[in-house]
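Chapter summary example.
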Amino acid sequence: MEQISVVLTTVPDAATGARIARCLVEEGLAACVNVLPGLRSFYRWEGKLEEGDEALLIAKIRSERFAEYERRMREIHPYSVPEVVALPAAQVAQSYLRWCLEQA
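The structure predicted for these 104 residues follows.
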């Protein structure tokens, strides 16, 4: 049975998120990408605690296409180490699942 995953990725701002989201949907790598602005992130980078405003992308993809999705994200994302975290969708409404699988 085909499955979908929810992929989380932070981006520097909503405009960058919209550009990436549009690209992923147009290329058929994601069925849908939500862009959530107003995220505040705390993380370590090169040994230093960082803090900054970001936006969050929530993408719905075919689970078996994760490697292709990740590869494309690394090509179009402005960060040298983009966050690309996939969570398998354990339960999905059948009508939404069918729609996602038709789109991506």
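To summarize the output: Residues 69 and 81 are 15 Å apart (CA to CA).
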